[in-house]
Amino acid sequence: MKPLAALLLLALAPTLAHAQTPIQVTVDTAHPRAAYAPAWNKWGADEPNYVATPNGQKLLHELAALSPEPPYIRVHNLLTTGDGVGSLKWGSTNAYTEDAHGNPVYDWTITDRIFDAFRDAGVRPEVEIGFMPEALSTHPEPYRHQFPRQSNVFTGWSYPPKDYAKWSALVTAYAEHLHARYGSSVDTWLWEVWNEPDIDYWHGSPAEYDRLYDFTAAAVRKALPHARIGGPESTGPYPKADGTPGSSSEAFLRQFLEHCARGANAATGQTGAPLDFISFHPKGQPKVVNGPSGKYVEMDIAHQLRAVDFGMRTVASFPEWKHTPILMGESDPEGCAACGIEQNPQNNYRNGPLYGVSVAEATARTYELAERYGVNLLGSVTWAFQFENQPYFAGFRDLATNGIDKAVLNVFREWGMLGGSWLPATSTGALPLDSMLQGATHTRSDLSAVATRKGREVDVLIFNYDDRDLPAPPATVSIRLTGLTGTHATMQQFLVDRDHSNAYTAWQQMGSPQQPSNEQTTQLTAASKLFQIAAPTALSTQNHSATIPVTLARQGVLLLRITDQ
User: Fold this and answer.
1) Which helix (H) or strand (E) holds 398?
2) Dmax of the chain from CA atoms?
3) Strand runs (DSSP E) across 236-293, as ranges?
4) How far apart are CA 109 and CA 114, in angstroms?
5) How many percent of the chain have pLDDT more than 70?
6) Which whole number is the average pLDDT over 202-231?
7) What whole-number distance in Å separates Cα of residue 12 and Cα of residue 493?
8) What average pLDDT is seen over the chain?
C-alpha cells in the first residue's frame, strides 16, 4: 500500500503529468429528486448448501450489513434430490422422496439448515421453487450431474413433473412448513417458479411452463394467500442479431406475460395467473482479445444493458403490467458463475476491480433505463456468492474466495453508503445512454457519477469504466457541489481500484499462495476491506458550493461522503 501522503496527493490533487482538461462532475445538493431504493442488494447462487457453511454464513452477515434495507438471496436447487453436499452448479435438499408404495415423504432437515442461515443473518429469501425431485421427474435418469467433468448439467431435475397433484401438494406443504417455522416473515419474501425455462433448465414447451407456473402459484397461494409470486426468470431478453426485437427469449417473455393476463389457468380454470413481479436475466459476454501488446479481457456491458433495455421495453408494452415490479433475477457480465479461468480465461476479470466497476456501471444504467421507460424497478440480482473447496482467486463469479472478500464486494459497500433521495448529478465524461447501448465503451471510457442526500449527508459515487482491461492514465476530475446549506463541511473518501480495497493485488504481490500462512491471511483480510483514504477532512465551501479535485484510475470507483454542517 502507498504511504498516506501519497494517497492524499493521488486522491485530492490533479495529476500534473496529464494536462487533459478535467472532467467536470456537478452535483446539485439542494434539489433532491425521487427516493433512493437499493435495487442492487440482491444476490444468488446455484449452490444453496454453501450458504450454511462457515464462510457462507460470514458472507451472508456481511451482505446484511451493507445497507439498512435487508437484502434478498436467491438460490437454485431448493427441491432437488440429494444428500445436501454442494458442488459446482449443484445443490440439494432431499425435500421430497417416495416410499416403496409411491407415497410422498417430506424431509425438511436440509431445507431448515439453509433457511435458518438466511434468518440468522437477517437476509430475506427469494424462494425459487425448483428443481424437480427425482421421484417426480418425467425423465429421472441420469439425475446427479458432475460438472465440470460432465458438460451436460441439464439432467433429470430439469423435466416436468409426472404428477401435478403430487407436485402441487409438495409445494403447498413446503410453503406451509416455511410459514410454520419462520412465521410472518414469509410475508416479506418473494416466491418464484423455476429458472430460465426458455432454455434447457426446463425440458418442456413454453405452454408447459405456463402450466407449471399456474399449478405452482396456486399451491403457494393455498398455503400463503398473500405470497408475492412472480416469474418467469427467463434469459435475456436480447434483441436479434440485427438489433431488432423478436428473439426467442423475448418471445418467451411476451407469451408468458400474455398468459398471465389473458390465458386459461391450468390450475384454477380461470383467466390469467397471479404475477406480482416480472423477472428476466440480462447477461454480458466478455472475451479475450489479441491486442498489439498481447492478450487482454474485453467486456461487453452493452450486451447486458441491451437485455435490460429490451426487457423493460417489453414489460412497458403491456398496459396491465407496465407498473408491475421488475426483478432481474440474474444480471451479470456473463453467464456461468461456476466457470473459472481454467475453462474461460476471460473470467479473470472477476478477481479484481473490473468486476466491481462493471457492477457500478450496470447498476447506474439500469436505474436510468427504468426511468426512461417509466417502469417499476424492484431489483437486480447479482448471481454471485461463494464457493467451497476451490483455489484462491480461481476466477469464479463470487464475492469472496475462501473467506477473503473480493474488490466487487467493496463496490457494493460503496453503493450501500448511498441513501435518502437521488440528487441531480452530471459528468462531462459520461457517455450517453444510447451510446452505451451501442457498445461505445469498446473504444471510450465512461466516467459517470450518481449522488444521494439524506439529511445533511451527501454521498457521491464516481466510476471510471472501460470495457478494455488495459492500462490507461487516470482521469482528472473536478467535482463541484452546489446548494450546500451549512457554513462548512467535512469529507470522507472511499476508494476501490487496483491498489485499494482489492485483495487480489495483495495476493499476487505475496506470490499467489494457495495455502497462505496465518500472517498472509491476516494481510489479505486487511487488504479486502473498503479502503478509506484518510480520516474526515475539512472541506472549504464558498457561496454554498465546494470544488473537489480528484484523480481516478481506469476501473476505479470512488465514494465521497460530504457532511454539510
Assistant:
1) none
2) 82
3) 277-281, 287-291
4) 9
5) 97
6) 99
7) 10
8) 95
C-alpha cell read off for 339: 466457470
* Domain extent listing, the chain: 4-33+421-564, 42-416
Per residue in 85-138, pLDDT tens?
999 999 999 999 999 999 999 999 999 999 999 999 999 999 999 999 999 999
Residue type present at position 332: D
* b/e map 532-542, b = 16+ CB within 10 Å: bbeeeeebebe
Q: What φ, ψ does residue 112 adopt, rounded to 5°?
A: -65, -35
481-527 confidence digits (pLDDT tens): 999 998 889 999 999 999 999 999 999 999 999 999 999 999 999 99
Q: Which CATH number is associated with domain 4-33+421-564?
A: 2.60.40.1500
Instruction: Flag the least confident range among 115-124, 347-356, 535-544.
Output: 535-544
Taking the C-alpha atoms of residue 279 and residue 284, their distance in angstroms, rounded to an integer, is 17
42-416 topology per CATH:
TIM Barrel (3.20.20)
CA torsion angle for 495, 45, 49, 208 (degrees, to 10)?
170
* Nearest of 283, 291, 466 to residue 381 by alpha carbon: 283
483-501 per-residue burial string, b: 16 or more CB within 10 A, e: under 16: bbeeeebebbbbbbbbbbb
